[in-house]
What we know:
Layout: E1 74-82, E2 88-99, E3 109-113, E4 139-143, H1 170-184, E5 190-196, H2 198-209, E6 214-220, H3 228-242, H4 259-269, H5 272-278, H6 281-288, H7 298-310, H8 321-327, E7 331-337, H9 346-354, E8 358-362, H10 370-373, H11 375-386
Parallel strand pairs: 3-4, 3-5, 5-6, 6-7, 7-8
Antiparallel strand pairs: 1-2, 2-4
Amino acid sequence: MAIRGLVAAILPFILACSVESRPPRSSDCVSLAPAPPAALTPTPATSSIALTPAAPDARPAPLLAVLPDTNPPQLGKIGDLLLESGESIKDCQVEYRTLGAPNADKSNVVVWATWFSGVTKDLLDLVGPGKLVDSSRYQVVLVGALANGVSSSPSNSPQQPRALFPTLTIRDMVESQHRLLTRVLGLAHVRAVMGISMGGMQTFQWGFSHPDFMDRLMPIVGSPRLAPYDLLLWQANLDAIQQNPAFLGGNYREQPVLSVVQQLADLNLTTAENYNKQLTREQVLAAHDKLTPPRFDANDRVRQLRAMMAHDVSKPFGGSLDNASKALKAKLLVVVNERDAMVTPGPALEFAKLAKASTLVLKGDCGHKAPSCEESTIGKRIAEFLK
């Protein structure tokens, strides 16, 4: 979703992360968006290889090169996972990392869910003293969302590869994480659950799927349900993928070059003012000529896109955020940026008001990238909220 040359300041989001290394942090902002494109030469759309579909029931081919990781995540095996759709993920696995140490009664555990396309490695730079969460005071458990390319995904499932992988919801992601935390890590209760962007959507859902599991919820630039503008953006992303001739209904042999998807990410990740400060006209045009397949698998991207689009914590409450807010038990801190054009802040602020929750409304020009641009401000507020 993000263009490497375009977004040295953006890497990596919600729109996209993968098993690759997190790119160096920019002096201004780190991207909470799609993972950067791989340094590969794109296969032309006319290539007979690119347009020859793989067998839909074949074991997934190594479509993305595995990059070296000196400190790989752990994989929690949670068995077959029954989904909201009635289908199951066979032999489901959830990636995780732990930072810091638990106290005697394990009351200092903070669970942090990944953003759209994100992997747990992408969160490492945001954890530690002076960061969003201080791992010298809390044990931070980073958990990878389903279909992120490391947890069970269309791109890595031996039994349900590619288009055979079932449809997911945000609630399914939360269920996989709850099973990991309780059955693999032996946790019965945690201090807080948090997440950025799609991680924030998972955080809201945690408050309803398992309302007694945590004391506090901290969604950051997330939403209890997507606003109409957000749905339009994600539908455009979905159309750009599925209408790409190289997508082949999800049974491609090589990753398609998703130029429109990457451009949509750049348009919505930050404000026009911030984008224009970061890039020149020449850089934009040069980057467009060098687009390569993104590091985030296209089938994985589709599953997470659909999960976000279906997300709505008010569904069990007749579509009423007011009724939903009355069922919330954990204390809630909602962090938004008022100029966010990727996950617009309206629904989160409406829910916060109904739930009488604490809020932090950021006003900088970074938009959806506010968690990296205003890390210090958010970190101080989180530290106060966790006390």
